[in-house]
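ingest -> validate -> predict -> emit
validate: passed (alphabet ok, no gaps, 160 aa)
predict: started
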Amino acid sequence: MAFASSSPSHVKYDVFLSFRGEDTRDGFTSHLNAALCRRNILTFIDDKLERGDEISQSLLNTIESSKISIIIFSKDYASSRWCLEELVKIVDCKEKYGQIVIPVFYHVDPSDVRKQMGTFGDAFVKHEVRFRKGQKMLKRWRNGLTEASNISGFDSKVIR
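emit:
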């Protein structure tokens, strides 16, 4: 897939991995990262970053300077504000630069992600309480989940 002419001029990574560390870091994500690295695919995995409330500008720049983003939706993905901010940036890069986005539904139903049901709905109930005054942000997160889950991807219940 060709990138739009407005794509970042400096691509640093072939693939950016977005995932909920507590769910998949030591299992699925580490195996996927290892497989990509064996194929000489330069992958960014955020295993050395400090977590906090605000996503760092350097991480947002890393997403922007990647050719492909793989989003690993797992049961607690939506409970992380950090993951949701990454997701919004990824969707933005897809729209602005034509970045390739590949969703992986790891032991979650794609429709739960799309409609924010199940654990995704539970996470948003908590976000609604915590961020009562952040309705615009919540709407961006919901839209990001819906848009990303509408992209053809991989469902771990269907394929290995």
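The domain at 13-155 is CATH 3.40.50.10140 (Rossmann fold).
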